[in-house]
């Protein structure tokens, strides 16, 4: 068996809220000749829960025989100086030799962005061990920050991040992208497209048993699980719920919003201000509980703002969770790919159009139960066929094998 290290600042252990991509890939790759170790920050993104005691600087845990190395990082809130300090602290801790001494030495190192400093640390470790470096691109930094309005296009920080990004692309043996059309961004930077491989997010179907049809009820229940951030554009969903009240529906339509994020207080205040008694905000739940709660849903809503970066596509954990739960999904997004449409599992409306979203909700509520059920089954079938982690683990293992072979040829 060969060994790979995943450097993912925000990696999540099983059982908590958030995505568990690398844990799931690690399990999926076992049958294809690879074992994986995950190197992550001690502070949990979104909650600031610290997995380490005050006196600990690092700790090696195991979950289903997958090693997780937690590195001590500082707490932060928002996207200011404290978060940058957290990123730099993780990068320095990952490069400290004492912290990684108990891990099986790597045959490949994968540096995974959200931010590029974690990927840069992965490159440095690959150079230290004289093994191939694979750059996994989950977000197109800094372009995502620019497109979201968080960073000016002409700014010294943007320039530095762009230089670092191109350096990582050029030094990588392979580039793994989660967005299906990310190559349209990367290749114009002078990068050989043959280095780029698409391995999206996926689903561990064992925690999402095949669902039963939703029994008829007096209320139509719409659900949203996930982050309450700028990109999610949940104000659009709240406005749509206000519009729904003016439409003719045979049953009351309620929305359950489950999760957390920096905009949750303002969204709750907005719902109160416009008198949304058909919207309930709930605390986030561990991933293992999503399937149970989803049994109460008639449909899910997936919403993103209209941002230029989505022209490269999306690979959303929560969207795949929604689809795996066997319910229709209303897709309010302008991305270049649309898994719901590909599955035939719901309705699609433009981003940022609350009236059109409200009309889609009312249209779905009015559909015959067998038509609604068929959409949910189509979503589940599509996920099983395309996004199950054994399939993705085999694909990722193939990328690592190719990286090793390419390095040997050089």
Automatic annotation (TrEMBL):
GO molecular function annotations of the record: hexosyltransferase activity
Gene3D superfamilies from the UniProt entry: Glycogen Phosphorylase B
Keyword Isomerase included in the entry's annotation: no
KW Hydrolase (keyword) present: no
Alphabetic keyword roster: Glycosyltransferase, Transferase
Pfam families per record: Glyco_trans_1_4, Glyco_trans_4_4
EC number: 2.4.1.-
SUPFAM superfamilies: UDP-Glycosyltransferase/glycogen phosphorylase
InterPro entries: Glyco_trans_4-like_N, Glycosyltransferase_grp1
Enzyme class: transferase
Ranges of residues in domain Glycosyltransferase subfamily 4-like N-terminal: 24-202
Protein name as annotated: Glycosyltransferase
């Amino acid at each position: 068996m060969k060994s790979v290290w995943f450097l993912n600042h925000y990696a999540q252990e099983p059982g908590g809220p958030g995505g568990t991509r690398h844990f799931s890939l690690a399990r999926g790759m076992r049958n294809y000749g690879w074992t994986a170790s995950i190197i992550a920050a001690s502070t949990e993104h979104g909650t600031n829960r610290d997995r380490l005691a005050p006196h600990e600087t690092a700790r090696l845990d195991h979950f289903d025989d997958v090693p997780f190395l937690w590195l001590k990082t500082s707490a932060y809130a928002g996207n200011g100086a404290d978060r940058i300090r957290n990123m730099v602290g993780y990068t320095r801790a990952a490069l400290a030799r004492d912290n990684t001494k108990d891990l099986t030495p790597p045959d490949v190192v994968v540096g995974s962005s959200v931010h590029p400093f974690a990927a840069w640390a992965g490159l440095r470790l690959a150079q230290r061990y004289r093994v191939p470096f694979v750059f996994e691109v989950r977000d197109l930094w800094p372009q995502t920050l620019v497109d979201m309005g968080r960073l000016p296009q002409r700014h010294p920080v943007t320039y530095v991040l762009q230089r670092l990004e191109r350096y990582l692309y050029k030094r990588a043996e392979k580039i793994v992208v989660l967005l299906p059309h990310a190559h349209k961004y990367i290749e114009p930077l002078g990068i050989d497209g043959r280095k780029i491989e698409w391995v999206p997010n996926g689903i561990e179907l064992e925690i999402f048993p095949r669902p039963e049809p939703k029994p008829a009820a007096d209320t139509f229940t719409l659900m949203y699980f996930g982050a309450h951030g700028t990109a999610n554009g949940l104000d659009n969903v709240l406005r749509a719920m206000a519009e729904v009240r003016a439409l003719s529906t045979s049953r009351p339509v309620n929305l359950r919003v489950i999760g957390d994020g920096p905009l949750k207080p303002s969204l709750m205040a907005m719902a109160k201000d416009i008198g949304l008694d058909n919207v309930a905000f709930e605390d986030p739940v561990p991933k293992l509980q999503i399937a149970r709660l989803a049994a109460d849903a008639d449909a899910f809503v997936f919403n993103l703002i209209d941002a230029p970066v989505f022209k490269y596509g999306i690979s959303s954990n929560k969207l795949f969770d929604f689809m795996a739960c066997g319910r229709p999904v209303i897709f309010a997004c302008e991305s270049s790919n649309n898994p719901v449409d590909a599955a035939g599992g719901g309705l699609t409306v433009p981003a940022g159009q609350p009236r059109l979203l409200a009309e889609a909700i009312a249209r779905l509520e009015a559909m015959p139960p067998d038509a609604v059920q068929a959409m949910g089954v189509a979503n589940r079938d599509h996920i099983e066929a395309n996004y199950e982690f054994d399939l993705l683990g085999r694909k990722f293992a193939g990328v690592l094998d190719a990286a090793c072979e390419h390095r040997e040829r050089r």
